[in-house]
Amino acid sequence: MKNIIYFILGIFFGIIMFKSEASSWFRIYEMFQFQSFHMYGIMGSALFIGVIGTYFIRQFDIKSFGGQSISIADKDKGFTRYIFGGIIFGLGWALAGVCPGPIFTLIGAGYLPMLVVFISALFGTYVYGLLRDKLPH
Amino acid sequence: MQAILHPWPWYASGPLIALIMFLLVFMGRSFGMSSNLRTICTICGAGKNIDFFKFDWRANSWNIIFACGTIIGGFIGAHLLSTDTAVDLAPSVIADLHQKGFASAGSAYIPDELFATSAMTDIGSLAMLIIGGFLVGFGARYAGGCTSGHAISGLSALQLPSLIAVIGFFIGGLIMIHICFPIIFGQ
């Protein structure tokens, strides 16, 4: 039953990712050229609501649908991995014009070359796992 | 109803993304797409030799199901909920991209030059997709998350590591577009 809900939420997310044009290579390019407010508006408004909602969940200990306490885990402290990993991710985001959500979205939309991006992203993840102990975190 | 068939404005899209995040939080999960790439590596057997992939992937099966939904959502968005998918870009961006050889700018959703099936025989286009995909996968795992995990979930919870990662995303993106692209496309 829960799995059906995850599936439906995923469908909803895919529709939003496509219809918002957040999956468009062009929109990502335009964002990094600072020529449109569109992508900043999407992220900014999501964050505005996200920050307020997360604050209320933490402040008033709002319970999950299952009645448990919601614990929003803190990210591990650090600097190196976040800045280096972030820059590498950003280079790829601008080059291929997609982050992981839109990769799935656009495969569904029928752009077959996106499978190349998907397999490369899997390979990149694999290589990270391979080199993890040798990389500065 | 007609409005649904047009591109959705940012002030509808952003809050809907936040809604998805909160629904997952209320189901006891956290919103993050790139961890699926790690899970898929594990399903494919990467845990045999590498500790990073040694975990019970069934714990993340909810997210794999979510990603399968995202694929279906992409199909629905593109084929059932859209009439014209051309992205209405800023005129300056269209002119700039035309100059760089992206003739489809202004008339397509993503560039035909990269994502039309015929582009697969072009070595340059293929290289962009392969290198781009690799960097996204590698960088997301190195940084411990992508746009959903850091820029949306992490920043919503006011996490400093996520802010550092998002600053990194933008440094990388700006380097690519403002330094690498002019070199690649010879301008």
Secondary structure: elements and pairs:
The complex is a heterodimer of chains A (137) and B (187).
Chain A: H1 2-19, H2 25-32, H3 38-59, H4 80-96, H5 100-109, H6 114-131
Chain B: H1 2-5, H2 10-26, H3 35-43, H4 61-79, H5 91-99, H6 112-115, H7 123-143, H8 147-156, H9 160-184
Helix pairs in contact in B: 3-4, 8-9
Name a few traits of the molecule.
heterodimer, A: 137 residues, mainly alpha, B: 187 residues, 9 helices
In short:
The complex is a heterodimer of chains A (137) and B (187). Chain A has helices spanning 2-19, 25-32, 38-59, 80-96, 100-109, 114-131. Chain A has 137 residues and is mostly helical.
- What is the terminal-to-terminal distance of chain A? 39 Å
Count of discrete alpha- or pi-helical segments spanning 4 or more residues of chain A: 6
The total strand number of chain A stands at 0
Task: Please summarize the sheet with the most strands of chain B.
Answer: none
The rough form of chain A would be described as globular
> Roughly what percent helix of chain B?
55-70%
Mean pLDDT of chain B: 96
The helix-and-strand class of chain B reads mainly alpha
How many structurally independent domains of chain A? Answer: 1
Which protein chains are joined by the largest interface, and how many residues does each one contribute?
A: A-B, 114 and 126 residues
Oligomer: heterodimer
Strand content of chain A: under 5%
Individual helix count of chain B: 9
**Based on CA inertia axes, which overall geometry of chain B fits?**
globular
Taking the sheet with the most strands of chain A, its summary is: none
| Rg over CA atoms of chain B | 19 Å
Would you kindly provide a written description of the structure presented here, covering whatever features stand out?
The complex is a heterodimer of chains A (137) and B (187). Chain A is mainly α and 137 residues long. Chain A has one domain (2-36, 74-134). Chain A has 6 helices and no strands. Chain A has helices at residues 2-19, 25-32, 38-59, 80-96, 100-109, 114-131. Chain A is globular and about 45 Å long. Chain B has a domain at 1-83. The model of chain B has no long low-confidence stretch (mean pLDDT 96). Chain B has 9 helices and no strands. In chain B, helix 3 packs across helix 4 (61-79) and helix 8 (147-156) packs antiparallel against helix 9 (160-184). Chain B is mostly helical. The chains are: A mainly alpha (137), B mainly alpha (187).
